[in-house]
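pls design
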């Protein structure tokens, strides 16, 4: 009865949270791509620059053949969130307190539950493997299949999958069972999943997103990686509306000390259980190494450290090896995350996560159906295109589209930093400004304190070449949690 109540409360809150959540560009990028893909072959072609494995796209692609509504992606995501919660509540060996702490933690209650991305399928598949681990010899083939799929979720979940495959091989070795046919098949499935991941995500020659690899030792970057480990376990933000991707402790050294201390403490306490020790060392180590080699990422990436901790804590129950110090540390981490998760969900309920939905609603309601629409930057306009359900013109890359192509031609340093004058010049040379038109510009920071910005309803005259144009601010959308998805809407006409 107690477990059922926890599950029902979580399910209701996630449903309400998704209803109040406005999707941002990364959520709608995937949906917009599948809408453009008439066949599986088109899909594989269109995602070649994405850097993500194919599984999430394959899951949502069939649904795009029945509707173009972006809300469907949230329904699909909700189903995986509820299935993950079901496993934690009804199939895990966690105590009631631990189930509550994990379910309502920042990552499982907000980051991976309310933001509809490919990460949720990784959560679900990882928990399925944890459930199967109790009778791993009996469930060896299902584990192999699940591992194959787990490698297809995301780059960071691939690192956890690699760590799980490693301890599976070690466990089979200890049991003198590596060379049984079904066990070899399970290992082969895991390895095949890793190879398929590498094949499908290998960057194109002209790919331009996150192409840098750091192969040198920089002490400052090492400290930064350790700080990110802390953020992946204790993601305490600045408590304000635009809290997302912020951290209350700004100093990398302090964050790094906390992060490495937690990791080393877990390794020391669990040092006598080789399976647990190896998983903690390899999963955390691989994630840290990847963050060092690819010095990018956000909270959604660092959160895989929390997911790895959930997995290893779950399977440690099966070995009856849970020292009190581990219980205390695990519960402390996730009970703190409950506070952060509730805060994040509350802010998302009361403020727009992104203003893309509001912009699209304004355009549909207030402007003519044939209005000419341009977005200043492709990456900041995809969510609006998704909610509008049609292509818009991207001024910086010169295409009509609804998603970004991470290709050097369409995403490079030059077109990511155009001046407003250059953007306006491109706009007036592309559109017939004697007809209804709207230009979408984004802004960050405190709009109210920026005197250079237009006020809503304000018009200014701008000289572009030999002509003078009247630029009118139609609407301002602010107060978003994703700070760079606040927008100005402008209309441009010839000066009278």
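designed seq:
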């Amino acid at each position: 009865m107690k477990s059922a109540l926890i599950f029902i409360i979580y399910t209701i809150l996630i449903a309400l949270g998704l209803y109040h959540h406005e999707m941002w560009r990364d959520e709608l990028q995937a949906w917009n791509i599948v809408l453009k893909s008439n066949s599986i072959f088109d899909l594989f072609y269109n995602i070649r620059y994405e850097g993500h494995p194919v599984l999430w796209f394959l899951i949502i692609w069939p649904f795009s053949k029945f509707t173009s509504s972006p809300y469907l992606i949230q329904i699909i995501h909700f189903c995986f969130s509820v299935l993950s919660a079901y496993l934690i509540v009804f199939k895990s060996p966690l105590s009631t307190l631990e189930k509550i702490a994990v379910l309502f933690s920042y990552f499982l209650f907000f980051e991976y539950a309310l933001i509809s991305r490919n990460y949720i399928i990784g959560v679900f598949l990882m928990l399925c493997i944890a459930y199967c681990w109790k009778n791993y010899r009996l469930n060896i083939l299902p584990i192999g299949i699940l591992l194959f799929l787990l490698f297809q979720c995301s780059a960071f979940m691939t690192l956890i999958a690699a760590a799980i495959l490693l301890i599976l091989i070690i466990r089979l070795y200890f049991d003198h069972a590596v060379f049984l046919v079904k066990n070899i098949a399970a290992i082969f499935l895991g390895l095949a999943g890793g190879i398929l991941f590498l094949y499908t995500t290998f960057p194109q020659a002209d790919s331009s997103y996150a192409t840098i690899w750091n192969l040198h030792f920089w002490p400052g970057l090492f400290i930064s990686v350790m700080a990110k480990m802390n953020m992946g376990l204790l993601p305490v933000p600045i408590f304000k509306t635009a809290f997302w991707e912020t951290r209350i402790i700004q100093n990398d050294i302090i964050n790094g000390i906390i992060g490495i201390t937690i990791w080393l403490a877990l390794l020391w306490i669990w040092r006598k259980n080789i399976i647990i020790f190896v998983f903690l060392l390899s999963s955390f180590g691989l994630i840290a190494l990847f963050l060092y080699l690819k010095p990018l990422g956000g909270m959604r990436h660092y959160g895989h450290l929390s997911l790895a901790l959930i997995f290893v804590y779950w399977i440690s129950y099966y070995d009856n090896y849970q020292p009190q110090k581990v219980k205390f540390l695990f519960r402390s981490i996730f009970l703190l995350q409950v506070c952060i998760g509730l805060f994040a969900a509350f802010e998302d309920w009361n403020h727009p996560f992104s203003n893309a939905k509001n912009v699209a609603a304004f355009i549909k309601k207030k402007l003519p159906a044939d209005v000419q629409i341009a977005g200043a930057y492709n990456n900041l306009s995809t969510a609006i295109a998704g909610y509008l359900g049609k292509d818009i013109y991207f001024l910086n890359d010169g295409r009509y589209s609804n998603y970004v192509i991470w290709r050097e031609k369409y995403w490079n340093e030059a077109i990511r930093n155009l001046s407003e004058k250059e953007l306006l010049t491109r706009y007036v040379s592309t559109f017939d400004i004697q007809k209804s038109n709207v230009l979408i510009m984004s802004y960050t920071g405190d709009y109210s304190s920026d005197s250079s910005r237009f006020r809503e309803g304000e018009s200014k005259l701008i000289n572009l070449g030999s002509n003078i144009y009247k630029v009118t601010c139609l609407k301002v959308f602010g107060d978003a949690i994703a700070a760079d998805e606040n927008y100005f809407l402008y209309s441009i006409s010839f000066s009278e």
